[in-house]
Amino acid sequence: MPSPVGHTLAGYFIYESERKIEDPFDWKKMGIFVFVSNLPDMHYVPALLLGNVDRFHYPFLHSFCLGGIVAGCVYSVLKIKKSREALYWGRTCFFLYSAHILLDYLCKNNYPSDGLVLFWPFSDDNYTAPIHLFADLQKGHLGQIFSWFNFSKVLKEILVLSVPIFLMHLLRFKTACWRPSPTNDGEKCASSIRKLN
Predict the structure, then answer these.
(1) CA distance 31 to 35
(2) What does DSSP assign to residue 107?
(3) Cβ–Cβ under 8 Å, residues 142 and 160
(4) CA–CA separation, 137 vs 180, rounded Å?
(5) pTM
(6) Residues lower than pLDDT 50 in the chain
(7) Are 14 and 95 in contact (CB under 8 A)?
């Protein structure tokens, strides 16, 4: 499965994609996005501390149904607190959880049961992508975790995920340039775009 670095980049991409151009960068909100993006793999933290990386590895953690349960819990808690953002955060949490599953779906799995039980509990079938963009990491012990093998796989994750992030920022930049505003007449941005091209 992809590393926390890959899932963090995915969370950042989703945060930036839904952030309005005029809104300032919100570190707290982005932190929530990153946390939820990594949530399905949080079982590795106590497992590593106990010295058995597979101790709490349950296939259903990477299912859309569990993502829906997590999103439903978030929605319910915020609704009880009468938050106006209950629906937004419930929907966002499901989307982030599903994005994590998607990245794992695109990863070559080293476990005996290759693939993910995406539709648990309705089906125990394992699903995996016909083409894998990422490789599973070695997680047996700390020596493997901080190995050159894992470093090379994390570097590949950064390179692959940097492409959509770059394209998204380029699109946002060009959109901001041609959006009418009191401080932007479009000409300064146009010259910047010509330099980029």
Answers:
(1) 6
(2) E
(3) no
(4) 47
(5) 0.81
(6) 112, 185, 193
(7) yes
